[in-house]
User: Fold these one by one.
Assistant:
Number 1:
Amino acid sequence: MAAVMQHAPIYEGTRIPSPAPTLLEVPEALGESEDILTVNFGPNHPSTHGVLRLVVELHGERVVGLRAVIGYLHTGFEKTIEQKTYWKAITYPARIDYLSFQANELVFVLAIEKLLEIDVPPKAQWMRTCLLELNRLHSHLVWLGTTGLELGAISMFWYTFRERDAILDLFEMLAGVRMHTRYFQAGGLADDIPPGFAEECRRFADRMPAAVDEYEAMLDRNQIFLERTKGIGLLSADDAIALGQSGPMLRASGADWDLRRDDPYLVYDQLDFNVPVYPGGDVYDRYRVHMDEMRESVRIIHQCLDGMPEGPWIADDRKVVLPPRDELHTSMESLIHHFKLVTEGYRVPEGEVYVAIESPRGEMGCYLVSDGGAKPWRVKFRAPSFVALQAGPTMIQGSLIADMIAIAASLDTVMGEVDR
Amino acid sequence: MDDAGVPGLLERREAHGETSLIVARDQLVEAATHLRDVEGFRFLADVAATDYLGWGEAGTAGYWGSTTGRDANSPGSWGLARLPETKPKRFSVSYHLLRLERGAPRLRLQVWCDDGERVPSVVGVWPTADWHEREAWDLMGISFEGHPNLERILLEDDWEGHPLRKDYPIGGEPVRFSEHD
């Protein structure tokens, strides 16, 4: 494969369990001994990032059997979205993953726009890119804080949440709410960028690299952190691809793959950024990918603020986009359009599309089927967390139970997204 | 891409810049293996099952209005401009494939089945299909032949019905641990 880096293999062969790739069964020789201890890990455990239950079979301190039980947070988002008009359904994808809400929102909006074949003005494209990178920072910060917490580096949490709060302040400035902003909609943005946002955002982006240095100073020479992450949870590039891994999981296994660069959407083809790739395939390399991505995100945010064009923030298509608020008092046509769009929604042409973007966790996909009506016929989200969790047994087999915590943390799963 | 060599190919469709290959259900595994090994689609991104029950009929979920309300299908009214294209069978299963190279070429491999018809499992071709197929079984009730562990994944093991089907009652799910349970 051209896209996979050539380097020394992490190990020979594959570690994907057989016959079921997501199930680790106790070897027969061990199964007869009475030393196997079955432990229920979760569903409520501080390190499960939500509600995950792992049924672990232990031989001494080694994990020899593993089964993941998910679905505790299943909310039926896909079924609910089928009952809503597109206009109203945009609020739902954000709630699937409460750390990368804007990425989820965007993938759904992009799918609608692909069917509508609507042109989005450049200002909206640049702003979306900027927010996506802020959101990536937000997600990585929570990941770093909670992962540190699970490995005993408790203070990390307070440091990362300091910066996370600054990002949420920026979102609040835009949308009035800190999470689940619903700032994107088919055709562009929900509202114009408020005055002062660029300055605040730049102030944040200026101080963020120093904060990343601070995190690294706390972890990179922390002997406990290094010993608990290096060489733990191995996943080779071939196994990662076979298991459908994406995002930081794939890049930490040595596969040079990022949809932002390899299949550019929004304005990523006009930006200058690097894709961090590490060949180790262990928990430590996943940490390094996350850290480098934060630095790259800051660079992208700077470029977005510099390159942000003037102009409209939403497409001028009155059949899809709400008319400007001030027109409602003077124009009957606008009032009718507003009423029809809010009550009835807009129609999306018949067809099926699959759109994928690089969310903080990897390939976030949206498969959208429309019958030509005002409600989606079928929406299916390709959740990167769901897929990442499938690689658990491959990485955890043979490891110590304490390492299982570190490995599960490195998957960067959000259980809301796993269960949808 | 040259699709002449794809086993069991029934139809090739191009729409919205995406390519769909519809293959015969009994030759799905051969087609999948061919696409992975010859065409280089090593990455299976997603498996999406869709129920088309009531497609093009008034009052079903995709339409505005209710069964007793307007006729959403009569052209020129509040309804659709035209009826949507008919589908060959009730369910489609779409496999979204990706080739890991610049430009990210994608392909949709699609099979069609009716209620009760089994689809061959592609876990042997792409191990990542394991949970995706379990999800399709759990929520859509599509049974995969040869799957190593086809159990419910998101819902409880004793759940009745498959909620993403169009004939699943909305708001009618049983209340757990109630006195009526």
Number 2:
Amino acid sequence: MLATSDTARTGNAERLRAKTRLFTAIVVVSSVTGNSALSHGMKQLGDPGNSPLAMIGVLFHPWVALGVALLILWTLTHMALLSWADLSYVLPVTAIGYVLTALSGKYLLNETISQGQWLGILLITSGVILVGLTAPVTTTERASE
Amino acid sequence: MRWVLVFILVASTTLGDVARARGMKHHGEVREFHPGAISTALWSLARNKWVILSTFGMAISFFAFVRLLSIAPMSFAVPVSAATFIPETILARVYLRERVDWRRWAGAGLIAAGVVLISR
């Protein structure tokens, strides 16, 4: 009896861990690609001015539209992830996005990475691994469905 | 002006994230992802006061960040935004009652330091 409930609990923890990994990956990739697409589009457009009509017009630029769509995906997956995982888990592990942004700058845009920036990449990566080792859910009084 | 914007940025991001975590825990684990289930969830979330408060915080945070970028370089705006790690981790511990062990504290500290270095 005890063994069965233990197995069920381990199974549930495994399921949540796998689901957390998948959603963390989507959150990070959508945020990094969404922000890059948005910034690329805004740079192509230049200053649209402050009129509301110009702001709406910006949304029809393909890169801006792609960026906005990816950031909507980011919002929805980030909300879903926080529906089960701890904020003190989600916040640090999604910081790997800073590393992805720096590395994509180097390998896609041929930007250089200084020694200090490599040290930053190392610190962020170790922090993400350290937090990634903890269980994603630690609150006991979670709302049941 | 710069530091006023930094304060607004950090405070509104913290409000946005903590309220979102609170509202989503109240909603419960999202388990189904077919279009019908997603629209039902969205309809219920649109009336969740914590989620509404969070959206408000995120919107202020977005505009404060854009405004900050217009008066300060990216190498200033990005590292100062990492300051949110401190109040958010504290609130996750005291307000959301998450178990923040030494690995989470150390991880948050390493990442905040790393963000400062990476954005120079």
